[in-house]
Design a protein that fits this description.
Length: about 450
């Protein structure tokens, strides 16, 4: 086993459950059930973490509300990937002054990646006195213990993690969707892209055991889940720390063999580790969604080297060619960073050329954000904000034009759609469809596509 991981003893998890029962008994004696508001920022792993936090809160006797003025406890699960996200979160936390004044006994909890940064607890302690409890992802499993310390001690609690990545099994979850679910297969990242703070706040790679993952998958399918998304900072690295030849493609095939009518998705896949074995596992499984999110980040080789991405633009495009050869109906999405330090106009033009050739179905585009503690933060950055914004706008116009063309090509086709809302659902490839006609949430429906926009499809049930 890798020394990067600390597996939490089942007795320690049982102690957290005992604390949940203790707080539940206290809450049961109150005249009205206390309410919790959970506000989540960032990636899908944060969404999955919030489901665990809701599970704990449910087991402690809390109901849920989206109204912060009604809440007895407000939990803010934070993101640290971009500065804009941090500033928005801090602004929203500051605004909770009003809710706490209206409800003086209100408990405010700040957790997640932002809280794991070394400088952040001190900043919160000094500038945000309304915050009662702070902890990072490494301490998520002991949320009940930390909350009880705050409730009994009356003092603010700032968890001090040893910075060691943990693996904790059998934590409670409270899903928000009856038909879709997150399933974490690993945590952390060993890639250390030069712009990214994730390895510093999520730790090194730790894979969950395959038996636990398969048991979770079977339980989800038995519970009526039709769309399972496997989560990891880099799912392609699954099993490297387990030994015995465990790999992500092999895991994908075993989950596909679970009986039932459901789809499997996964995020995120790193291009340097995605190859023939994975592509064939996808193509040969009827349950594996024909959708791959493969972040390219830039189209210029010098910039990719400076980002520490581990592949060239030509290698990336060759992977796309092979993917579409195996799966012609594949929906391909990506991430791109505009304005990485030192990126020139000519280098940005290489990114535009790659996008024009790859013809992504959708793109998530971002202006570079300096993150303290990352190598890129120390690089010279001569381009002005106005130059970067102009490049960003050109990229967005190109991406939107391609997306609109691709969506228009669906008109007249009949697609199988998983209904996940009132008159809305997702195709096998993850495209949003708004439709008319009868279809129950949690079921698959055949929808004839009658129209499209840049972002979605329109149709009617057959």
């Amino acid at each position: 086993m890798s020394e990067k991981r600390r597996e939490i003893n089942p007795a320690e998890i049982e102690n957290q459950r005992r604390i949940c029962r203790e707080i539940f008994a206290r809450n049961a004696q109150k005249s009205t059930s206390p309410l919790a508001c959970v506000d989540t920022y960032g990636c899908q792993q944060n969404e999955a973490d919030s489901e665990i936090l809701r599970g704990f809160l449910r087991d402690m006797g809390y109901g849920f509300t989206e109204n912060e003025y009604e809440a007895d406890l407000i939990l803010v699960n934070t993101c640290a990937v971009r500065e804009h996200a941090e500033m928005r979160i801090l602004g929203n936390v500051g605004a909770l002054n009003h809710t706490k004044k209206a409800k003086p006994g209100q408990i405010i909890v700040l957790c997640g990646c932002m809280a794991q940064q070394a400088h952040m607890p001190g900043r919160i302690k000094k500038s945000f006195p309304i915050v009662d409890l702070v902890f990072g992802p490494f301490d998520l499993w002991r949320f009940p213990e930390l909350l009880l310390e705050r409730l009994d001690g009356g003092k603010r609690v700032f968890a001090k993690s040893g910075g060691e990545g943990v693996l904790a099994e059998d934590l409670p979850t409270a899903r928000q969707s009856p038909c879709k679910a997150w399933l974490s297969i690993m945590y952390g990242c060993d890639n250390f892209c030069s712009y990214c703070v994730v390895p510093h706040v999520r730790g090194r790679e730790r894979s969950r055991g395959k038996p636990q993952i398969l048991a979770d998958a079977r339980a989800l399918v038995a519970d009526g889940v039709k769309d399972i998304t496997l989560l990891g900072q880099n799912v392609n690295s699954y099993g490297k720390d387990l030994g015995a030849g465990e790999t992500f493609p092999a895991l994908l095939r075993e989950i596909s063999a679970v009986p039932g009518d459901f789809l499997i998705r996964f995020i995120t896949s790193h291009p340097k580790d995605a190859g023939e074995e994975l592509f064939r596992a996808m193509a040969e499984s009827e349950k594996c969604a024909r959708h791959l999110h493969l972040p390219v980040q830039a189209g210029n080789d010098r910039v990719l080297r400076a980002m520490n991405r581990g592949y060239t633009a030509a290698e990336y495009l060759e992977k796309i060619r092979r993917l579409r050869e195996l799966m012609p109906d594949l929906v391909l999405t990506t991430d791109i960073i505009v304005g990485f330090p030192g990126e020139t106009e000519a280098e940005f033009e290489d990114t535009l050329r790659l996008v024009a050739e790859a013809r992504f179905d959708a793109m998530f585009t971002f202006l570079y954000s300096k993150r303290p503690g990352t190598p890129a933060a120390n690089l010279p950055d001569p381009a002005s904000r106005a130059e970067k914004q102009q490049r960003f706008d050109r990229l967005l116009a190109l991406a939107n034009g391609i997306s609109a063309e691709k969506h228009a090509a669906y008109i007249g086709k009949t697609l199988r759609v998983l209904v996940d809302g009132d008159g809305a659902g997702r195709t096998n490839g993850g495209r949003l469809v708004r439709f008319t006609g009868d279809a129950a949430v949690g079921e698959f429906a055949e929808v004839k596509i009658t129209g499209s926009t840049t972002w979605s499809l329109e149709g009617e049930t057959v």
